[in-house]
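Bumping with the actual sequence this time:
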Amino acid sequence: MSFGTAPLGDMFGAADETEATAAVHRALDAGITFFDSSPYYGNGLAERRLGAALREHREDVVIGTKAGRYGSDEFDFTPKRLRESVHRSLELLQTDYVDILQLHDIEFVDLGGVFADTYAELVRLRDEGKCRYIGMTGYPMGTLRRAVTETDLDVVLSYAHYTLLNTRLADDLAPLCGQRGVGLINAAAVALGLLTPAGSRITVPAGQRIVDAARRAAEVCARRGADIAFLANQFSIQRSGAATTVVGTTKARHLDAAVAAESAPIDEDLLAAVLAVTADVRDLSWSSGLPDNNGGDTCSA
């Protein structure tokens, strides 16, 4: 597993400096070496906190950040803004380069420019040593398939597509990435909070069928005295087939639980019971970004 820094940017509630630093150091102590960030997370707050926490550990870790998304509805994938964004990220992260640089949530803009001029700028930044590997992130499966086939990427990041609710990652994207030699990063094992006892603290555009399925799954676990989030992390980390699964938290107990979920044997009877009550939504995806970038992928209601 790897460490996602959205919580360091106060994306799920305020985290103070001490808590943020302690979370990064706890992840290091647990053996985590890949840290994933973005300027979108708190307008650079997550990058600044991550850079400070990793200042003495740069040679021991893999740092990834993104560019192109800067707010809930602020997107700019022009080559000029991409380069400016990378330079600011490097300053905040206190490093001369990032290991992985990805375009963030590309489905929100026209993909023609992303796959042409913006991709070319990504390659130039890699050639200049500003990053070692390049990639793109997004939610719609069709968008990521296009990214993999229409450009020559090192990695892609997919989220909420290998969970107790949805396993499309394994069939729709993983085989293509394998054929093309593209590293696959999995994220959002708890489906943006839907697969937690309390449910999501943010608005997830999932559709009522998916929300209801998540509630049923939580109820199955509660009746058996099990933690739905722990099972969700087990399933996503152990079964997705991705190179890594990103888990983000600043809470020590949540981080410790996620680390334990990486290797703890799965209760197969419990898993079967949960998958049975979520079977009707297994192939459902919600809409994200421009309608044209969702194609036939979106089938939630």
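The tokens above came from a reply further down the thread. The chain has one domain: 2-293.
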